[in-house]
Each structure stands twice: as C-alpha cells, then as structure tokens.
Request: fold
Amino acid sequence: MTRRIQRIEDYALIGDLQTAALVGRDGSVDWLCLPRFDSAACFAALLGDDDNGHWRIAPAGAGDCTRRAYLDDSLVLESVWETRTGTVKVIDFMPQRDVMPDVVRIVEGVSGSVEMSSVLRLRFDYGRVVPWVRRADGHRVAVAGPDSVWLRTDPPVKTWGQQMSTRSSFTVGPGDKVAFVLTWHPSHEPRPSIIDPHEALEQSLADWREWADKCRTEGPYRDAVVRSLITLKALTFAPTGGIVAAPTTSLPEEIGGVRNWDYRFCWLRDSTLTLEALVTAGYLEEAAAWRDWLLRAVAGDPADLQIMYGLGGERRLPEVELPWLSGHFDSTPVRIGNAAVDQLQLDVYGEVIDSLHLARMAGMAAKPHTWNVELSLLGFLESRWREPDEGLWEVRGTRRHFVHSKVMAWVAADRAVQALESDPARRGDAERWRRMRDEVHREVCEKGFDPKRNTFTQSYGSEELDAATLLIPRVGFLPGDDPRVIGTVDAVRAELGRDGFVRRYSTEGRGRAVDGLPGAEGTFLVCSFWLADALRLTGREKEARELFERLLALRNDVGLLAEEYDPVAKRQLGNFPQAFSHIGLVATALGLEAG
Reply:
C-alpha cells in the first residue's frame, strides 16, 4: 500500500544523546543522522520520499498505529497496532551509546497472530547514495564510502533484498519477541560489538527513570515539564554539553514556502532560558555542562563572537542546498548549514553575560577565567551597542536598531553591575557599567517606544512590533506594572496575535522589508509562551494560565512541539522537536507554579 505522508506532528523522537531519529505514526523511521545530530542523514524520507531512505516496521498492509506513547518518563517509544487478526506492539529506542550508535526496534506479539513486515532503505548522504549490501556473520551489511551499517535480528527472520531495499517478513503471536538492531560504524573499522537488545531496553528505561526522578517540580504541570525536560536532554550532545536547537533541517515554517533552515546547531540566543529552565528544575549537572560549552564556544576575540556554533563549538557552518530532495510537502529548498552564522546579532552578548550571571546565582562552581570573558565581551559591546544589527530573529534584510538587541545590551551592563555590587573585591568599574546601563535604558525608552500607541516597537523609528519586546519585564528592564510594559503586551497581542497565539513579527505589508523573505510563517510557540509569562508578570495570571493550557493542547500525542503552529490549518510547522519551544513550556509552567 502507498504510505500516507506523515505530517510534522505525526513524529515521535528517539535518541542516544548524540543523535536522534524521528519515528512516524506508521512505524517508519523517516529521519536519522549518523553518527551525530549534524551528520548526513541515512534516512531522509522526511524531506523527500521513501527512495531517500526510511525504515518501516508494521503489520503487513497496515497504516498508522492505533495508539502510541513513551514508556513512563523515558525516551522509549511504544506503538501499538490492533489488527483484524491480533494486536502487536513495536518498541523503538536508541541506547545511550558505549561507542557506536544503535537503533533497536523490538516487535512483541500481544494477542492473536499478526504478520509483520520490515522495509529498510538506507540512503547515505541525505538520501542520495545507495549503499552496497551484503551478508556477513548473520548480518546484513550496507557500505558506501565512510559509512557502514550492520543489521541483525534476534531471533533470525526471513530477510531478502528487493527494489534496493532490505525486507523481512515474520509472524508473531502472544509473547513472541523479534528484535532488530541497526548499528552504524566507520566502514574502515572492524565489525562493531553486539548488544543484547532486551538488556539494552531495561537499562534505557532505568536510566531515563532515574534522570526524570531528579525533577524538582511537583505541581499540576509536572508531566508536561518532565516530558519537555526529557526532550531537552535528548537534544543534548553528551560529549560536549551543547544543546541543538532541533534535530532536523528544513522543516518548513510555511508549507510550500522557502523558510526552511538547518537547526542542528547550538544557538547562543537559547543560553539564558535554557540555563534558567535546567537550574529551576534541578538539573545542575546539565546546566553546568551547557555553561561550560558556552565558555568554550565564546572563547577568543569578542569581535569574533558568533550567534551559533557546532556541537563541539565549531565555527564554520556553510549553507548549501540539496536539490535532489523535494522537501517536506514540497517545501524547498532543502538546506544544510546556516548562513545566519555570519550575522551581527548584538543581543547574544547580553544573553551570554546573563547566562553566566545566572550560573553564579545558582551556585555553580566558577571557572577561573569566566569573569575575564565577561569583561571582554562587555568591553566589546560597550563600543558597538549603538550600531544596527540583524537582531534576534536573524532577518535577512537590512540591519536595523532592534529594540531587543538594545535591551540585551542593558542586561549585559546590569548584570555586570550586580556582580560588582555583590562582590566589591571583584575586578571592574561598576560606575562605568552603570553609565552604560543608564544610557542604553534612556535611548531605548526615547527611540524604541511609540507614545501614541503606548508600545515598544521592533526597531527605532519603525511601526512594526516584535514579540521579543515581551521579554522586557522578564529581564528586568522595566517592571511588569509599568504602563509601557502593559501597553506593549496589549499591542503585541492585538497586532501579532492569531487565534490567541503570537507571531514573531509581521511578515506581510510593511514587515516584508524587515524580513527580507517572501511568504509567511505560523505563530511562534516560544513567543506565545513569552506572552503567557508577560501576562503573569503584568498581574493577569488567569489569562496567562488559560493561554498556557491552550499551548499545552498543541503538543502532539507524545508531548512534542515544533517551532511554530498554524492555527488555520491546525498543524505544527518548523523544525521538530524544537528546544526553544520546550524551554518556553518549562519556564512558563514553573513560573505559574511559583505564583
């Protein structure tokens, strides 16, 4: 039968803290990059079709599963099919790796008798390269260039090659179990070690349960918070502590549009909110690892600071297009790499300094050079904050004096003043940073505020609004009861709102010149969480809670959120799952629980 094209929200995530796979409701793994998040995909049907690589295990002739869920507080996915002849479940997970990455898929009969089918199409280099497949030592071995993948079943089942794919057929009854293990390793190395799939399952469940039990919150939103924290943990590259924005590239912000970007990198813009979420929830080890990644990434000349880096802090992320992929629902181009790495975004200096300040406040052991790094970044910002930049949203239009960028310059100076006031023995000139802080504050209030409409604007002299101004009370630039803050919240909700959710900025009419891109996008989920936070901070907690619970309802059946949501088509948009969205969820939930 022809497979139904899976929508973004039809996918669930599995991973091993170094890479991740997306599994559709129909039991097909349609996206997997090996061995790292930013490696080339060997399953790329997500951005093309089945010929670009996928691996489906499901009852013969069946469509989507009847139901699915993660097992307890884990990243182990269980999909159940209730068929005419019986019931079967498929358990999918990736064990936290020893050396090489494994994908384990265990088929278990529940009742009756169910004929199962496995179709494996490996296509290396983002769906472009068909490997050579042979048999060896009870495995099917696929090799092409540097990549090698070994597939085995336990117990062995009938397997054959057909139409450039590896197929298996078998029948399970109650209690029968058939495990598939797919292992990647460099093609020039000897055969990888063999894992016991059933032991790996028990260990994975134990590992995730132990980790989830560390969560401090016990409030009414605990389940949602824990699921989001597990997702953030899954997006962590364990060897370095870096957290990718998403495990995917080029999932569209508009179906059929061109706003398709690679998010498999680590953004400095996420740093403060990520640290805040991890610290508040009790995950100091992960917060410290992220802080340390941040320090390594930004080391060097502050003039060379980038807005994003690779998993290990790599700086070169060249952007290219892959013309052989047709895109998700024909949304092209498909891009890898990200040219926004070369943009000037002055807000990141404030975000880095705020993150390091938060780490100090949380009691994390300080690194000897941390304060010197902050002083260096602040000194550079002092000389450049008056310049226009591309802003938080990486617009590909002309540079402007974005209000959010200026506010974050204020944050940088403010946190330096706080640090010096709390420790007078610390090296630095508090009066110098007070002067900078006051000058930035004065200029933003004069040039970035529209008194006629009683709202802060996107940039100096513009009429457009920006959801990033919702962060003004959160970072302490103005208190929540300030009439200018209340006016900004109301204006953003009115002008950028869509069905109660919030867009980042306008992409039509006047906003086209700011954005520099054709087409539109959906409501931006983290901005909608920011609106809930701003409503709470301006004293409208009931409205904040109502919005938050509407946002919770947008999660898919396994609790995951993409970057954006289309309230008209009622579908998720953008890369998936999105760290920023889940960070927003955690922060808003914890804020509401704290009152």
